[in-house]
Model the fold of this input.
Amino acid sequence: MQESLGLQYNPMNKNKLKQLGFDYIALGHIHKLDYNSEENQRIVYPGSTISMGFDELGKHGFIVGDITKEEFKIEFIPIDSKEFVELEMDITEINDVEELIQRINDLLLDENKFYKIILIGKRKFEIDILEIMKFIIKENIIKMKNKTQPDYEIEKLINETTLKGIFIKQLLEEKERQNYTNEEINKILEIGLSIMDK
Done:
């Protein structure tokens, strides 16, 4: 069922289209630009003329060109001065939330872009995105996401004869049995250890 839905949603196969011998094919519906991704590209997704959010990253505009028997020439013309950008920020070496806020406010950002800051790395402190956003002075930072992990010394904790050590051992045994994905294990580990810290 999923395969048939996928075909209905996007039934165009580029390799099959190339065999049809058209001079130029403009495809639609997908908002992301696909232009100049290969040499002498004649099958193009122009994308939407403006970006509506972080699910439509990159430049937006339209395609113009001349197509004759002698010449094939197309060009992308950007018309949307605003662009949505995702920017990763590793906070492993940041010691507290005040320093994090200062680092974000010190970022050199393009005024014509809207930014989503994605926090990554190992954190030494709790992160409350809503609270942090209150202190961000750059108006073009409009979204933030926390993808960090707590900075636990797993190798040290696992050798302890404590509740934390037993918890980690059992969790890693479950991982060996392949009952959980790495992402699920990390989330369970984070929740469990944070509860024990309280």
Observations:
- The longest strand covers residues 83-90.
- Residues 123 and 150 are 5 Å apart (CA to CA).
- The helical segments are 2-9, 14-18, 97-105, 129-133, 154-157, 163-176, 182-197.
- The radius of gyration is 24 Å.
